[in-house]
Design goal:
The structure holds two protein chains of two kinds.
Chain A (H helix, E strand, L loop, with lengths): L6 H4 L6 H17 L10 E4 L6 H10 L3 E6 L5 H6 L6 E5 L2 H4 L9 E6 L6 H13 L5 E7 L9 H12 L17 H16 L6 E11 L3 E10 L1 H9 L17 E3 L6 H9 L16 H10 L12
Parallel strand pairs in A: 1-2, 1-4, 2-3, 4-5, 6-8
Antiparallel strand pairs in A: 5-7, 6-7
Chain B lengths: L12 H7 L6 H18 L5 H4 L15 E6 L4 E5 L6 H8 L19 H9 L2 E8 L2 E8 H6 L11 E4 L8 E6 L4 H8 L3 H12 L9 E4 L2 E2 L7 E3 L3 E2 L1 E7 L2 E10 L12 E6 L2 E7 L20 E8 L20 H24 L9 H8 L1 E2 L2 H5 L7 E2 L18 H11 L6 H16 L2
Parallel strand pairs in B: 1-7, 13-15
Antiparallel strand pairs in B: 1-2, 2-6, 3-4, 3-6, 4-5, 7-8, 9-12, 9-16, 10-17, 11-12, 12-15, 13-14
Classes of the chains: A alpha/beta, B alpha+beta.
Chain lengths: 313, 446
């Protein structure tokens, strides 16, 4: 069984801008979903808080969720994790997430974020299967995985071997070597994630209603897939709502992920651009050079992009 | 010019005789006949497995012996006879020999499809004799199967001559079937010295909950003892259980640690067992069918300590998820699909427990191991009397072990040097190790 990587040692969780943009987009859309008859503040949030608990802080403050469970695999940092508990309402449990998913109450709706920091492994897929089978209708399931090539200095043939071993039955018709070229790995990952979710849901009346598909890189390329376990009526409600005006919402399994690209800009450039946001159709940037796609990225994400500064304390 | 005509979709006797006997073994055909005998008891209202199979029957002492199903097998003849109540004439004319049951037919609980007797006849013999006796009348039937097969022109040819006999005041009431001319391949199987042992052990496994509780089975005069499900429990490890009803089917799932034999868990006995109305249809399954490699890891020998029991019960046997050979599950069955999710959820903590027993490095005082050593064999009927709850462990109660094992490789010539130094030429390496350890403790660690 692959163990979670210790990325908390490598990356300061709070300084990953693309990840933060993703979190803020989730918050914005969940706030809207809350107005559609899904009382998000009464949901239970379960995630991997590590020692930073960024998502817990954000979801508690911005969504009002106050039933929260953080699961930590690494019992060697038990004290540190508990020391960093951000709020009294965050329960911390140690062990593999697979031990806790079967204990999630079916009488309560859940927001579960399986936010892995490694490439897909067989044991992740077991977790996801359990989640799809266990979470009651109206719950929201998010899964994040690393979509870099799973074997370093490998070739499509080696990557194919890797995915066949770890995710064989969920590959569907992706059996040719050409499906496993590097540029297609994100799609392979997407297929696997959707297929395992559908497998966990197979015996249920509910289906998976896709809502999110993000790709971004604060270092490694990552993919997040998410949606609601719900009825056809839920699907109609969600799709007919103002959610469709949010560019990053992805209602179809086949939709290309929304790419969160962070343009590298100076403080002055950002302030200048912000003054022109949201940009008129006719507005053009003349004051400094910026490639068109970087400008477009900025237009898409400026509302969610954090500002980092030095804090003296 | 297009015209509408009618294509032939007639059944053929040859199809039934030669094709659908291929998917079933001789053993399973014989078990089908045992099912029919047990169903006689169901029809006489003597037993109700759908309601009672998970309960212990408390029989008063000195009561008459349990009904007996007696099998006799030799290269010359196969016969099965029971005193389970028999088949009344009304039933023989409409149900016993037809392929499949009419809607609303009075079914038992183990026979579901209306196929077992016919398939057994075609599989085993070129002829058969059948006789049944009840208080309201009985019948005799005798037929040359090959001769019957020759004429196959109309539905009229699909009948079996029956001789109805009058009511009897005195029993024993029951049914017997005899095959005097065996098919060649059946004779070949019977010549195999392992066949009777295999058949007996299949019966012992398949009817574990019936044998010696509500019926007896003998093979060539020897009693078949039930082979109990290898489940165990202890105060420190309480089995997980779930119960639910879907449609006409009641489902009970138990997941627990396996019984240990000589302090070991056996690969052959681990996995899922599936019972339909008490009859085992799947034993020790470790495949993806029962969730391995989906919500559970793929099966690995470190899970040899896992046993799960899935019990489906219904008074409508067609609602149960078994296949027609009763040696497997119909994976498309909705009730099985629902059960599968619960199986995985229930098994998950036990899988984690077993993972904990075999960590990367070897620790001697792992609480999981000490719990595992204490489990004792349990009976499913005792477990089923408890309220459903998840698998529960009491790790805290287990005292930490205060010893550890010291083991290392040493050069033979160094061991020999110590032997000479202590002047004990016959000491074992083990003894030398202990001596040097104690010597160090005494002289260096006051």
């Amino acid at each position: 069984m692959g163990e979670p990587t210790q990325s908390y040692l490598k990356v300061p969780y709070d300084l990953r801008p693309a990840k933060q943009v993703e979190r803020r987009m989730l918050v914005e859309s969940l706030q809207q979903i809350a107005t559609l008859g899904f009382p998000i503040r009464d949901y239970q949030y379960t995630g991997f808080g590590s020692v930073y608990f960024i998502d817990f802080v954000l979801f508690h403050k911005s969504l009002g969720i106050s039933k929260m469970l953080s699961v930590e695999y690494d019992s060697a940092i038990e004290k540190r994790v508990k020391f960093n508990q951000p709020f009294r309402c965050v329960t911390i449990k140690l062990g593999p997430i697979a031990d806790f998913i079967p204990t999630l109450s079916r009488k309560r709706r859940h927001l579960l974020w399986l936010d892995y920091d490694s490439v897909i492994t067989e044991s992740h897929l077991q977790d996801i299967w359990l989640a799809a089978a266990q979470l009651p209708t109206g719950s929201i399931l998010l899964v994040t995985v690393d979509v870099e090539p799973p074997v370093k200095e490998g070739t499509p043939a080696k990557w194919k071997d890797y995915f066949s071993t770890e995710a064989g039955t969920y590959l569907g018709t992706n059996s040719a070597r050409k499906h496993f070229v590097e540029s297609n790995l994100i799609d392979i990952n997407r297929h696997i994630l959707f297929n395992v979710i559908k497998s966990g849901l197979a015996s249920r009346d509910e289906t998976f209603i896709p809502l999110y598909s993000f790709e971004y890189a604060d270092g490694h390329r990552m993919l997040t897939v998410g949606g609601m376990i719900g009825t056809p009526l839920n699907r109609e409600t969600l799709r007919a709502s103002t959610l469709k005006d949010l560019k990053y919402m992805k209602f179809e399994e086949a939709d290309r992920p929304f790419a969160i690209n962070i343009p590298r800009l100076t403080r002055k450039e950002r302030l200048f651009l912000d003054k022109n946001m949201p940009a008129h159709a006719k507005w053009a940037l003349r004051d400094f050079e910026l490639p068109a796609e970087m400008l477009q990225s900025y237009k898409d994400i400026y509302r969610y992009l954090p500002v980092y500064g030095e804090l003296v304390f | 010019m297009p015209t509408t005509e009618m294509a032939n979709a007639f059944p053929r006797k040859r199809f039934f005789m030669e094709m659908f006997t291929r998917d079933i073994s001789l053993e399973d055909c014989i078990l089908d006949l045992i099912d029919n005998s047990i169903d006689s008891l169901v029809r006489q209202k003597e037993i109700d497995p759908a309601a009672d199979i998970l309960k212990r029957v408390r029989r008063p002492k000195n009561k008459e012996p349990l009904p007996l199903i007696s099998l006799k097998l030799s290269e010359k003849e196969i016969s099965i006879s029971d005193n389970c109540g028999g088949i009344p004439p009304s039933q023989v004319l409409t149900e016993v020999f037809s392929f499949g049951h009419d809607e609303g037919a009075s079914l038992g609980q183990l026979g579901a499809y209306g196929i077992g007797l016919k398939r057994a006849i075609f599989k085993i013999g070129e002829d058969f004799e059948m006789r049944s006796l009840t208080a309201v009348g009985g019948f005799d039937a005798k037929m040359d199967v090959l001769l019957w097969a020759e004429k196959d022109d109309a539905m009229e040819d699909w009948k079996v001559p029956i001789h109805i006999t009058g009511p009897e005041r005195k029993g024993p009431f029951g049914t017997s079937i005899k095959f005097k001319t065996l098919r060649d391949e059946v004779k070949m199987r019977l010549r195999d010295g392992a066949f009777l042992g295999k058949l007996s052990s299949e019966i012992a496994k398949t009817y574990a909950l019936f044998l010696e509780e509500i019926v007896r089975v003998e093979v060539n005069g020897s009693k078949v003892e039930p082979m109990l499900l290898p489940i165990a429990s202890s105060d420190d490890a309480k089995p997980g259980q779930v119960e639910f009803t879907k449609g006409d089917v009641k489902v009970r799932i138990i997941a627990t640690l396996a019984e240990r034999k000589d302090q070991e868990w056996a690969y052959e006995r681990a996995g899922w067992y599936v019972l339909c109305n008490g009859r085992i249809v799947l034993s020790a399954d470790k495949s993806e069918l029962t969730g391995w490699g989906e919500g559970l890891p793929r099966y690995h020998s470190k899970y040899n300590g896992f046993v799960g029991i899935l019990v489906f019960r219904s008074r409508k046997p067609l609602a149960l998820p078994w296949t027609t050979t009763k040696r497997g599950l119909n994976r498309e069955s909705p009730v099985f699909q629902s059960a599968k999710v619960e199986m995985v959820m229930l098994a998950r903590p036990i899988i984690s427990f077993l993972n904990g027993m075999y960590p990367g490095e070897l620790f001697e005082s792992i609480p999981e191991r000490r719990i595992a050593e204490k489990v004792k064999a349990a009976d499913i009927r005792d477990l089923a009397s408890k309220r459903p709850a998840p698998f529960e462990l009491k790790k805290g109660k287990v005292e930490a072990k205060t010893t550890t094992k010291v083991q290392y490789e040493a050069e033979l010539k160094d061991v020999e040097r110590i032997r000479r130094a202590v002047q004990k030429p016959k000491w074992s390496a083990n003894r030398i190790g202990r001596h040097t350890f104690e010597h160090f403790l005494k002289t260096e660690c006051p």
